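3.2 Worked example (two chains)
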Amino acid sequence: MLAIWKRELESYFKTTIGYVFMGFFLLVSGILFTFNNLFSGNGDIPGMLSSFSMVPIFLMPVLTMRLFSEERKNKSEQLLLTSPLSLASIVAGKFLAAFTVWLATLVGTLLFVVIVGAYGTLFWGEIVASYIGFLLMGACFIAVGELISASTENQVTAAVISIGVNFFLWVIDSVIYVVPGQFVSSVLEWFSIYARFDPFARAQLGFSGILYFLSFSMVFLFLTIRVIDKRRWSEG
């Protein structure tokens, strides 16, 4: 798993993908921070992160679209799948590489916290809770994107589908109220990322929210393993 993690992490920065992701995210979040916090004299860090929350929906597919699609396109997937590594190790290694880039990007936003701290009072409990929620929310989007990447060999298709799915997961709360049937509503409610992120955005660190994000990510990583395993056997 560590070998896959290292290889994938290096590939993000041997190409422009890692730099584009980090640079664009920090650029957009910096603009939002300037207008929502600096110009208004607002020192609300959880509110700051909440204002950033739509950015990963559209940007995270940049990290995930190539995870398996590129392997299939370059015909190198079979070499990877016939290696001594287990499918779980391969999927986990790729996930952790994307997650590492996401983590490093969030570390960059701590500059905004430093700026707020220079002119106001920081409440570290709120900051920690908000960052944990934001980090875990990103992990969910990475897991979803990895599954979609494993299901197609076209990176652009993987990115477009990922954006659509991420957006649906974000607005699913609005869909629940118009869907008939309690069972269907309950199933859709489980997929509501925003409903679980909202307490973190209000600086409420809860075990149930952390467990949900971890479970959500694990479910999609498991599905990724099953998709690859099925294709491996079907293609011989």
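3.2.1 Second chain
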Amino acid sequence: MAYCSNENCSAYIKGAQAAMELGYTNVKHYPAGLAGWKAKKEALAQPKS
């Protein structure tokens, strides 16, 4: 899954391209980005301490 901080950011393109160059074929884009995910109140993974 490739995403950016918000829907106005295009930095995800580099990440998606890098994944495809590594051989990944099921690369998807989440256009709403992290801001959209948070706005929907979806769960976020938390780092382990």
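3.3 Remarks
The CA atoms of residues 7 and 32 lie 5 Å apart.
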